[in-house]
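Quick one:
INPUT:
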């Protein structure tokens, strides 16, 4: 639509002409509408990380490598039975009896949740390979196996630091070697 005005006329007529032009333009406008329907599912989740214990650096509390993640390392140094020999000042070393010694260190586990009404979680652990003869891997005095997850706790609270102690028990006749293991922790919402 094309509207032309003669500016020689009165202002009132000019305004009336502009109004009529606008009304005529809007009367011919085309409109359309549509709807978008959204579907979304909220998924609950939990997250597990390892942290250095507040006592890190003192006997029984070695620092973790890559702390505050879910993929950490723990170096327990070198140990031997005679003479209470161990090279790491942060490990806890003790003779259990005349045949076995133990090296241990504690760390913290933190499990958090999102979009879940679960009140707490269960924690379990499993080693990846069978240990050498006369070597035992434990978490808080619970022996770990490579055949299934071993329950550690039945109802831990989300968001709290839970201290766990890794223990390696070695018989005094185990040949010199590097003991290396991967321990997988599994947190399951209750």
């Amino acid at each position: 639509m094309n509207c032309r005005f003669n500016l020689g006329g009165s202002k009132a007529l000019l305004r009336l002409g502009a109004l009529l032009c606008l009304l005529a333009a809007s009367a011919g406008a085309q409109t359309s509408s549509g709807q978008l329907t959204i579907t979304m599912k909220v998924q609950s989740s939990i997250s597990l990380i390892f942290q250095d214990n507040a006592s890190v650096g003192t006997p029984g509390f070695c620092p973790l490598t890559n702390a505050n993640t879910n993929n950490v390392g723990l170096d327990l140094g070198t140990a031997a039975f005679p003479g209470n020999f161990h090279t790491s000042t942060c490990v806890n070393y003790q003779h259990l009896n005349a045949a076995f010694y133990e090296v241990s260190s504690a760390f913290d586990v933190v499990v958090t949740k999102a979009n879940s009404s679960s009140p707490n979680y269960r924690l379990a652990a499993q080693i990846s390979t069978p240990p050498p003869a006369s070597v035992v891997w434990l978490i808080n005095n619970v022996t770990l196996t490579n055949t299934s997850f071993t329950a550690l706790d039945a109802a831990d609270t989300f968001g709290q630091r839970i201290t766990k102690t890794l223990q390696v028990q070695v018989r005094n006749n185990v040949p010199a070697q590097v003991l290396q293991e991967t321990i997988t922790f599994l947190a399951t919402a209750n």
